[in-house]
Amino acid sequence: MVFNLPLQAIPLFSIAAAILLVYLPMGVVGYARARVGYDPHAPRAMFDRLPPYGQRATWAHANGFEALGTFAPSALVAYVTGPHPDPWLFGLSGDEGVALLCGVFLLARLLYNFFYIGDIPIGRSLSFLVGSLATLGLLLIGLLPFLGQNLA
Question: Is the pTM of this model over 0.85?
Answer without folding.
Answer: yes
